[in-house]
Write a structure and sequence with these properties.
By secondary structure, the protein is an alpha/beta fold. It is built from eight helices and 16 strands. Strands 3, 4, 5, 6, 7, 8, 9, 11 and 12 form a nine-stranded mixed beta sheet that branches. A five-stranded parallel beta sheet has the order 14-13-10-15-16, with helices on both faces. It is elongated.
């Protein structure tokens, strides 16, 4: 069996030694009933004897998500289809990156030690994690990661505004343009969306349509809300409802409308410009791969 090409130590620009020729990734898996899954590293491993996350080196042909779920399967017998990605956080150590993939269980799973790299796997209540002897990098990252556990990005898309942001002939077939946008958006819950240099998200997508596009049907990964009155009021109502149901989630409205941006900000949402979203969609369609996704 060929050795995975990601295996091997590298030295970052700060002179520290890290495992993973193309970086490394770990899975921070949370379960509403049991807390988060921690791995007690075997004594002979790098930083052995500490508690950290299932994970390891990223291979040259893998995304960070693929590497983290592969390692979790190999080390802890966690099937990839039993977890749902929510977000990822990448830290650059100067030529070497580590990506933490935050995910949540979608069905009950048990964790089983599968190889000699782990002494133990344990579900730890969130408020007890800091009491453990953590891997030094995980200990430094924990305060940044803790507020994002179980937190979902809900992307509320102002369909009319986004479609109208580019002069591509959309006015000749408004329903068709809305369907094309819907189909583009359907890739985001699977591919992810990079919003900053460090954070990426696998969002829940809500598309709000109005006027001639009101008959747009939902698809598997895109919820569609048809405005019964003006689209802006429907978007504000949608944000308000989402904030009431899941106040911990991050809600971002995609629109260039300044007045609407002010209204949704007052409801606790953030906003994103159409060009940022469309640029990300085009990047995915072009086949380029974000290592965080």
């Amino acid at each position: 069996m060929l050795r995975p090409d990601g295996d091997g130590f590298v030295e970052c620009l700060d002179g520290h030694r890290h495992w993973g020729r193309f970086g490394a990734a770990g899975l921070l898996l949370s379960d509403p009933e049991r807390g988060v899954l921690l791995q007690h590293r075997a004594w002979w491993t790098h930083h052995g004897g500490t508690w950290a996350l299932p994970g390891g080196a990223v291979n040259s042909d893998e995304t960070a998500w693929a590497a983290a779920t592969r390692e979790a399967d190999e080390e802890a017998d966690i099937p990839g289809d039993a977890v749902r990605p929510l977000s990822s956080w990448t830290v650059d150590h100067g030529g070497w990156t580590y990506t933490t993939l935050l995910a949540q269980t979608v069905r009950p799973v048990e964790a089983t030690v599968m190889n000699a790299e782990s002494d133990e796997l344990r579900w730890v209540p969130v408020d007890e994690v800091a009491d453990y002897k953590l891997h030094q990098d995980f200990a430094l990252a924990w305060p940044e990661l803790l507020p994002e556990l179980g937190r979902e990005l809900i992307l509320v898309v102002d369909g009319a505004n986004v479609v109208g942001s580019r002069p591509d002939g959309w006015w000749r077939d408004r329903p068709g343009a809305a369907r094309r946008l819907r189909d583009q958006l359907a890739g985001l819950p699977r591919q992810g969306l990079a919003l900053t240099g460090e954070w990426s998200w696998w969002p829940r997508v809500v598309l709000v349509v109005e006027g001639q596009a009101r008959e747009t049907e939902p698809v598997a990964d895109v919820e569609v809300i048809s405005a019964t009155r003006d689209g802006d009021s429907t978007i504000v109502d949608t944000v308000r409802s989402l904030r009431t149901k899941r106040p911990q989630d991050r809600i971002t409205v995609v629109t260039a409308d300044r007045e609407l941006r002010e209204r949704v900000t007052a409801e606790g949402a953030t906003h994103l410009g159409p060009n940022t979203l469309l640029g990300a969609l085009e990047q995915h369609q072009g086949g380029s791969s974000n290592n965080n996704g």
